[in-house]
Amino acid sequence: MTKMLRFIQLLCEGHNLEMQQYCIQQPGSVASVNIWIEIVKYLNLFRDTPRLWRLNSRVMKQLLETITEGMQAHPVLLLLCYSQVIHTVYEP
After folding, report:
1. Which of 53, 88, 85 is nearest to 71 (CA)?
2. Per-residue pLDDT for 91 more than 70?
3. 47, 61, 62, 67: which is deepest, by most CB within 10 A?
4. pTM for the full predicted model
5. Is the pLDDT of residue 88 over 60?
6. From CA 11, how far away is CA 86, in angstroms rounded?
7. For 26-76, how does the pLDDT look when each residue is reduced to its tens digit (9 = 90+)?
């Protein structure tokens, strides 16, 4: 999982808006998936299962690094991820 998250992070490095947008919607694909929403859902899984935080600290670190890189310089993605991350962290 860390390798996949790292790959997504590298795709978006350098404020690569084209790849950030592609992670939201894949034009011409049979089924388009918003990868950022799926990543945030994965973050929610960690929140809901505290034991995962301890067992997978490497994955959690990479998860947060990927979200951080992906939302830089993309205002819509920034708002989407920021609101979801805040909800994840502060929702009981």
Report:
1. 85
2. no
3. 67
4. 0.71
5. no
6. 24
7. 888 899 888 888 888 888 787 777 777 677 778 888 888 888 787 776 666
Helices 17-24 and 2-12 cross at an angle (nearest 10°) of 130
SS3 labels along the chain: CHHHHHHHHHHHCCCCHHHHHHHHCCCCCCCCCCHHHHHHHHHHHHHHCHHHHHHCHHHHHHHHHHHHHHHCCCHHHHHHHHHHHHHHHHCC
User: Using CA atoms, how far apart are residues 16 and 18, in angstroms rounded to an integer?
Assistant: 6
The CA distance from 1 to 59, in Å, is 7
- Distance, in Å, from the CA atom of 72 to the CA atom of 29, rounded to the nearest integer, reads 25
